[in-house]
Amino acid sequence: MPAQRSIPMNADNTGPILRITTLATRETVVCRLEGEIDRIQRPKPENPLGRAVNQRPHQMVVDMAAVSFCDSSGLDALIQTLQDAALAGTLLVLTALPPQVRRLLEVTSTDEVFTIRDSVYAALHGDRPPRRWRP
């Protein structure tokens, strides 16, 4: 049975909360980020991203569709998560990048080091289209 957890990351109420929700199976962890990833909201090593990497799943999908802002501190946190995932033997996949986040990755050329997919579905199932149910 998949485990799900949602944790607000802003303990001192200084700005919008970064919420990270995780859904885990034996081989895959999906982390959904919601809010701003900046100097104040930067995920700490003990956050759900770090815990997800420590589970050593085959694949870790980071759904960024609900990220409203990401600065260089947020990018640094994603790069650290990527490095930790590589050491754990976990494939890290970023999905559903908002235009501002995609632009940040392009400007810094880090779009070349991350695996990026258009959606969580694409990360989990490759480029295959969803199967249609037929009676």
Please give a handful of descriptors for the protein shown.
alpha/beta, single chain, 6-stranded mixed beta sheet, about 140 residues
Overall description:
The protein is of the alpha/beta class and 135 residues long. It has helices at residues 48-54, 72-88, 99-107, 120-125, and strands spanning 3-8, 19-24, 28-37, 59-70, 91-95, 115-117. It has a 6-stranded mixed beta sheet with strand order 1-2-3-4-5-6. α2 (72-88) links the parallel β4 (59-70) and β5 (91-95). The longest helix is centred in the middle third of the chain and has 17 residues, at 72-88. It is globular, with a radius of gyration of 15 Å. 32% of the residues are buried.
**Nearest-integer average pLDDT:** 84
Strand line-up in the sheet with most strands: 1-2-3-4-5-6
Poorly predicted sequence stretches spanning 5 or more consecutive residues: 6-11
What is the strand tally?
A: 6
Helical residue percent band: 25-40%
Structural class: alpha/beta
Number of helices: 4
Measured on Cα atoms, how large is the radius of gyration?
15 Å
First CA to last CA: what distance?
28 Å
The major sheet is characterized as:
6 strands, mixed
Shape: globular
Query: Secondary-structure element order, as H and E?
Result: EEEHEHEHEH
Q: Percent of residues in beta strands?
A: 25-35%
